Amino acid sequence: MKLYTYFRSSAAYRVRIALNLKGLDYGSVPVHLLRDGGQQLLPAYREINPSALVPTLDDDGALIGQSLAIIEYLEESHPSVPLLPADALGRARVRMLALTVAADTHPLGNLRVLKYLTGELGQSEQAKLAWQQHWLHTGMAALEALLASSSDTGLYCHGDTPTLADCCLVPQVFSAQRFGVDTAPYPTIMRIHAACAGLPAFQQAHPAQQADAQ
Amino acid sequence: MKLYTYFRSSAAYRVRIALNLKGLDYGSVPVHLLRDGGQQLLPAYREINPSALVPTLDDDGALIGQSLAIIEYLEESHPSVPLLPADALGRARVRMLALTVAADTHPLGNLRVLKYLTGELGQSEQAKLAWQQHWLHTGMAALEALLASSSDTGLYCHGDTPTLADCCLVPQVFSAQRFGVDTAPYPTIMRIHAACAGLPAFQQAHPAQQADAQ
User: Fold this and answer.
1) CA atoms within 13 A on the CB side of B209
2) Which domains are delineated in chain B?
3) Is 0.90 surpassed by the pTM of this model?
């Protein structure tokens, strides 16, 4: 398997964690979002992923975009070390937590959105940062409320083993810290983040550990 | 089952289609996003859904937020009339298409985002509309490319029966038409939209058919 990835992409980071948790070997193909006017926008990459976004998984020629679709695919094709619980309600909860990050929070901080703010909308760098922090806080407050209010929350987002939800939580915290968000109001998220940070699968998926971070 | 819904919410519309395709009976609980300063923001609703977003499914007391998590849950708990293909690659493709709408396109036109544009960022109504149209075009262009380039596309997004991807496509076209997006560049999307519009499950889920549309 090959993963088209960018070290700082939150969505690619999720998939790297999932691959590592499942112990799957893969090769990284770096797509630099800031070089060549954005390598994800080049025709060669658009043929691989018409959405012009990372990540893309190439599994023996089959191309899959969208981080959550990739992780669900890995779950079905490599079920050992499961990243979803066995029961339907548990699976629903883990997917709800994952989408709270992947659909409600992350898209608003995407590079192309930030470019539109400072480009078409003529916003300052300061207003851009305030936008990023606002939506990171909104998303993390929702995630904290979901986690803190449920007895299903364990050492990790759901019980005592990592799931798809943790694959989403950790990259979101990375972004929050990168953009100076005060994480003190989110003690449950930060407790789970610390637990994940102790695991090699998460450590090796960290942006700083990627070859293209150099 | 009860669905907390708002007639014009694209995410709630997806779930209504899925419930109808599966022939599941449910009661609608309207949450009006524009009344009482936004009924989704009231403490009573936040107890049901801490993200303060619609929809929420109440299945005998179990509360599930996030439209795609709800539809995956319905798929697992009521597998007849499947909304995902049987093979892992087909399922991955359908989820990729669904997320191209639900994660890449729809969140940027969410009501709270539009409010931030005209509020905190002081943008005009005209700039807000341009923003909506820009991200609708970006998302639909990606979806069109994914659909038009694949031999897996059939009468519907994936083969000749409706799937989760069609549950997402139709509400996205509704939004695009509502905000004056020219859909001529998206012939595959519009062909599939027309096929879906012929089915009672889609017709009955349409915003105009909901009790809270009055």
Assistant:
1) 10
2) 2-81 (3.40.30.10), 88-202 (1.20.1050.10)
3) yes
